[in-house]
Amino acid sequence: MPDTSCTLPVSPAAAWSALRDIASWPAWLPTVTSVTHVAGTPATGIGASYAVVQPRLRKAVWTVTSWTEGSGFVWESRQPGVRTTGTHTLTPGPDSTTVVELGIAWAGPVAGLVRAAYGRLTREYIETEAAALGERAASLA
């Protein structure tokens, strides 16, 4: 599972403010080209769905399966033969910092193929996303 963990020099509240506003991600996240809220789903929280376009990846619809206000969420996207789960976790660190953990996991009959084809790109993306989250949160703080 490609994942990354880093400590941001911002409060968890500032990090959450940036992370939770999924619709704004294309404005500050270079790995996301567009995000469109799926009509008929909640605006945020469990059940909210978003169509996400990323460079070099197929458009995917992500649905939030777990939402903990102030500390993170999990969402899933399904394509034939594979379910992709993305985790976004914020934990208070020392001295008003925030530990960010981002992860991607694949499951299903073609998960191994997806991992082989996209594992490296995915790792690059989540490392870029963690750094961009820190910059965005600092600008909001």
Give the arrangement of secondary structure elements.
Elements: E1 3-8, H1 12-20, H2 25-28, E2 34-37, E3 49-53, E4 60-68, E5 72-79, E6 82-92, E7 98-107, H3 111-140
Antiparallel strand pairs: 1-7, 2-3, 3-4, 4-5, 5-6, 6-7
Helix pairs in contact: 1-3
Descriptive key words:
seven-stranded antiparallel beta sheet; Alpha-D-Glucose-1,6-Bisphosphate, Chain A, domain 4; single chain; alpha+beta
Q: What would you say this structure looks like, in words?
A:
With 141 residues, this protein is of the alpha+beta class. The chain has a single domain (3-31, 69-140), classed as START domain (Alpha-D-Glucose-1,6-Bisphosphate, Chain A, domain 4, 2-Layer Sandwich). Helix content is 30%, strand content 38%. The chain is built from three helices and seven strands; from the N terminus they run E-H-H-E-E-E-E-E-E-H. It has helices spanning 12-20, 25-28, 111-140, and strands spanning 3-8, 34-37, 49-53, 60-68, 72-79, 82-92, 98-107. A seven-stranded antiparallel sheet has the order 1-7-6-5-4-3-2, covered by helices on one side. The model has no long low-confidence stretch (mean pLDDT 95).
